[in-house]
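Page 42, continued from yesterday. The earlier attempt failed because a stray header line got pasted into the input along with the sequence. Redoing it now with the clean sequence only.
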Amino acid sequence: MKIIACLGNPGKKYNRNRHNIGFIIGEYLARACAIQPSQKVFSSFAGQGKIDATPVLLLFPQTFMNNSGIAVAAALEYYRETPDNLIVIHDEIELPFGEYRVKFGGGHKGHNGIRSILQHINSPDFHRLRFGVGRPDNPQIGVADYVLSNFTQDEMRAIDAASSAVIDTVRSIVLLQ
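This time it went through. C-alpha cells are written below.
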C-alpha cells in the first residue's frame, strides 16, 4: 500500500492558506480517484482506494503541520509500510508559485511538517511532491505569516488548472515500484 500524506493545518480558518496546498491537492486527488477521506484514524481524516491497481491510503493529518509526523508514523506502523511507500504532498517556498517537483529523500529545509515526519519515522527516504508557493514579495513579511496567508482567487484558479497534471505526477510516483 502507498500512503499519500497531504500536509496542512486543520480547520476552516486555514482552508486556503499557502501552507495547506497539500490538503488542496489532496482534495483534487480524492475526487479524481473516488476516495472518501472520511475515516477518523491516525489523528487524521483518511480514505482508502486505488490508483490504477495500486492500493493507497490518502491521509490528511489533523495534528497541525508541525506535528504531521505523529499521524504519518502511526499510519506507516499500522500498515507495516516502509518509508519508501510514503508520498508527502507539501508547500515549498523555494519554488515559484505553481511549479512543482518530485524529490526522494533529503532534509527538511526548514519545513516543520517535513521535520516532524523525519523525526517520527527516523528516515528521510520517502517521496515528496513539493508544490511551489513562492516567497513573499515584501521582505517585511515573515515566512510564517506568508505561508499562513490565503491564496488569491487568481492563484486558486491556477491551482485548479494545474491539478490534473499534478495528479498525473502523483500517479507516476505511486506506480514507480
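Notes: The radius of gyration is 15 Å.
Reminder to self: strip header lines before submitting.
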